[in-house]
Write a structure and sequence with these properties.
about 400 residues, alpha/beta, 8-stranded mixed sheet, two-stranded antiparallel sheet, 14 helices
């Protein structure tokens, strides 16, 4: 059970009473009459064969308030797309699968690519972007939730708590971020958030002039959570990063487009676990190493757009400050683990800190060498300005795939 403390500049909605799920879902059913809701599931085909997604689908099949579920399917050939149709067919809600590697969606992507209006690299950001475009085209929702497909501890109350703040017509929130404790198998997880993001934000606040943006990011209890929700109108101007900076990038966009009193975070789970990335200390293009570099670059880019001047000397100071703060956090988490009967390997924690410190400096150097890089995918408002019929074409491509392969699953 969480406390009721409010910290930072956004609202925190706690789990103070373990309210019965039936009550939440009843209210959401009432809200859905006025504010229809969609769930987006960005998925790799390989996740259909993993341990998490079958249980997620089983839980979602009991959810009564969703107008539709939009599934973005990546890395799937035709046979795998057919299998995916069978796999998701147990969902009783209206649902559509975006076969992102199919010929129809590839044709749309290639046309947008030729105009510089499409994602430049594959990944979750690209998947989410197309799912949001389809959701806008379908006109079936006024509130959207999104969560990952690798949550091993998934319960449908996660979704209920995640979407409630933007679905409740009595609330004024445009965006909601889920948070939770990353504790599983007797240890504290979430290394990138614990040992990189939070210490980096504290170091930046110490080194740089006072920044509303940094105060804002530091208000989120788990800024890297892949679970968030928003009102559908917030999607039109949303620019989505295509790399591991997705979550930080979306938080930055919400800060750019909204007053902070329209943003919130909500406690969605007491127990949360999903698949873990390798540290990949010897490969800056993989695992947590690449993730940490992309996240740092996303923060540095946003600071620069806010008028902060960054230099090699600045990044050396940031690295030194980060390193000291992060090592202090290792001691903090060690003590937190011990009082809760958990284990924490100090050696591995400090190895991660050393890697993240190097990567923060590397990200700073990359930023200085590439100051004009624009990793954001254009907003759908911009794409529609250049291609007025694009959303209708995207919707029809998905519907055509659905019709062609109907009754051909398996």
């Amino acid at each position: 059970m969480g406390d009721f403390h409010q910290n930072g500049v956004i609202t925190t909605l706690h789990n103070l009473s373990n309210r019965p799920l039936a009550e939440l879902e009843y209210e959401l059913e009432v809200f859905s009459k006025m504010r229809p809701m969609t769930l987006i599931l960005p998925s790799l085909y390989s996740e259909l064969q993993g341990p998490a997604l079958p249980n997620i689908i089983k839980e979602l099949s009991q959810v009564p308030y969703l107008s539709q579920i939009v599934i973005g399917l990546d890395r799937a050939n035709e046979a795998e797309y057919r299998h995916a149709r069978e796999f998701f067919s147990e969902l009783p809600q209206h649902h559509r699968i975006l076969w992102n590697d199919g010929p129809r969606l590839r044709a749309i992507d290639e046309r947008l690519q030729s105009q510089g209006l499409a994602p430049t690299e594959a990944g979750k950001g690209r998947n989410v972007w197309y799912c949001l475009g389809y959701t806008l085209a379908s006109r079936k929702s006024q509130a959207i939730a999104l969560h990952d497909c690798d949550i091993l501890t998934y319960k449908r109350e996660m979704l209920a708590r995640l979407i409630y703040p933007v679905a409740n017509p009595g609330f004024n929130y445009q965006f909601c971020k889920g948070y939770y404790a990353r504790v599983a198998d007797g240890k504290i997880n979430g290394r990138v958030c614990r040992l990189m993001v939070t210490p980096l934000l504290r170091a930046l606040k110490k080194v740089l002039p006072q920044s509303e943006y940094l105060d804002y990011l530091d208000s989120y209890r788990y800024p890297l959570a892949g679970e968030f929700s928003f009102r559908t109108e917030a999607v039109n101007d949303l620019r989505i990063p295509s790399d591991w900076g997705l979550e930080i990038g979306i938080l930055s966009e919400m800060f750019r487009n909204n007053a902070t009193n329209r943003l919130c975070q909500v406690d969605i789970a007491d127990n949360y676990d999903h698949k873990h990335q390798d540290l990949s200390a010897d490969n800056a293009e993989a695992g947590l190493s690449k993730m940490s570099i992309d996240i740092a670059k996303a923060i540095f880019r946003k600071l620069a757009t806010n008028g902060v001047v960054l230099s090699s000397e600045t990044f050396r100071t940031i690295k030194a400050s980060y390193f000291r703060i992060a090592l202090d956090f290792v001691e903090t988490y060690r003590n937190d683990a011990l009082i809760n009967g958990l284990t924490l390997d100090i050696h591995k924690e400090e190895q991660a800190v050393e890697l993240f410190a190097r990567n923060i400096k590397a990200a700073g150097e990359y930023f200085l060498d590439n100051p004009m890089e624009t990793p954001f995918i254009p907003s759908w408002n911009r794409v529609r300005s250049a291609q007025p019929n694009i959303l209708e074409e995207l919707k029809e491509a998905v519907e055509a795939d659905t019709r062609e392969f109907m009754n051909q699953a398996g």
